[in-house]
Here is the input.
Amino acid sequence: MDNLPPPPPPPPPGRGRSAGPQPGKQRPPSPPDGEGRQTPTWVRRWVPWIAIGIFLSIFLVPSLLSGDQGDEITYSEFIALVDAGEVDSIKIETANGKITGELNDGNKFVSNGGGDRGLSETDEALVDARGVTKEFKSPSNNWFLSIIGLLLPVMLIIGFFVWLQRRAQGQMGSVMSIGRSRAKAYSTDQPLTTFADIAGYEGVKTEINEVVDFLRMPERFREIGARVPKGILLVGPPGTGKTLFARAVAGEAGVGFLSVTGSDFMEMFVGVGASRVRDLFGQARKMGKAIIFIDEIDSIGRKRGAGLGGGHDEREQTLNQLLSEMDGFETSEGIVIMAATNRPDILDQALLRPGRFDRTIVVPLPEYDERKAILLVHSRDKRMGPDVDLDTMARATPGMAGADLANLVNEAALIAVRRGSKQIERIDFENARDRVVLGARRESLIMNAEEKKATAYHEGGHALLSVVLPHGDPLHKVTILPRGMALGVTWSLPQERHTYSREYFEDTICKAMGGRVAEKIVFGHLNSGAANDLEQATGIARRMVREWGMSDAVGPMAWHSQQQVFLGEDLMSQGREYSDETARLLDEEIGKILHGQEARADELLTKYRRGLTLIAEALLEHETIDGPAVAKLIQQGLDETGMTEHLVANVLGAPD
Here is the structure.
């Protein structure tokens, strides 16, 4: 079904016929101030290996030094050499009877002796008779081996107590440092992100760059008495680049930059958040001039005393300390606070007042020119085909944030690789846009003939009304291929607009009713496929009556929906602000709008019944058709039924 946009900001492309009720590389941070000098890494790496080498050398070196003792011979060969007078001297080890000796020619030998003393009495007499110098020696004990048995238990006990002491010190150090800030400090020697890396948003760059200039050249502003804003709050939808701007400031400022997230202040221990805030500003003051960036500040800056059961005391104490540091009794000269959030409505008013966050900078969804520039930035390192037209793609992606556009380019590259192509072509961008906006193709889902026909008429009803209704978004394409959670999708691309008329909303509701009414006309019954359509149509009708004053019976009155308690509103003030009679009137007007647009859809689909049939048949044959093709089929149906009406089609042509 066609996209049913929630009013401003411009609606995203919508969901199709439902299947029924279904449940940059950063610089490494410098070590925090106050920490002791740590042991060099190479020392910690090599000392254990050196100790092991010394320990092994005690055993191996003596044996290596005495390893060259000559050739090994048998005892009988030794006696024969003695009898022949070739032996000059021998040494006999008394412990094992081993004989080592030297011949007259200087060669050495080793032999296993005979008897307990190495030589029998007869052989000893032969040795003496031949004049062989003999010497008895006892092996010397290794002193290390002698005392190792005594030292090893003592060393194990000492090592155990040293391990316990270090473990206790580590735990105590963790407890003592729990109140320290977890901010990451960035140096500015080699900025990795600058304002040149951010496409578009020239107004946002100008306002932020003014603060950067003040920190670089304060005398230029002080000459005329200008004071730099103490705080800058970046506000905008997710993905618009708020954190990217902070990274660019870190690269451009040339002063100290501390980055921290709001959740880093929160712990289970009372007082930790306030302590970390104090430590954070203490680090900034040591830098002289510094920028502190707090991402997702709503996690600690939400309204105090709000919510069910009262506020979180630890969060409130953290916020109180932040308020005091930003603009308390002691001023923080030269320190600028930057923060980012996409929920400014829940922030405490004391945080937003001048003197704390003096300036709020809105980072909105990019317009056409900005989307084109963003696509160019993310495509500059990609191999693009000659048929790729980023201008057309920028026009076809309204409502997308910078992160969505970056993801779109990356998805196109992935699809090109999957196709086996060497470059990214137009068809890859088209498929990537369909995947990002409508969801991935559900290849495993196989509809039977009856479901496929019902889906074709359902989507045909949406498509026909999208073409013939003049005030809605133009039709881009319609398909009965299952995507995401939808069995089929009618895709109308929202146009660049910032205000919406009553006629626009009426046409949008009428288009939402098209699928349900088409099935009722053709098959005579209803099914669960229109659940998502009714939900979106009812939401728009409710806001038309309650918030935008688009009901003549209710008149110029606004009755907002009850907000959730977690948004920071007082529970006691959430009572209904109108009487039962007014509530009945609101319900009647909402129902009147919905029933009126359903009757209008029935009238139009009955009038263009032949065109509806042709669209459904084309969908069953081709599965996907574009807006101009739908308009031609409706005009063909008018010609076949003998009508002379010339259709003024509200379509968006297929990209060239």
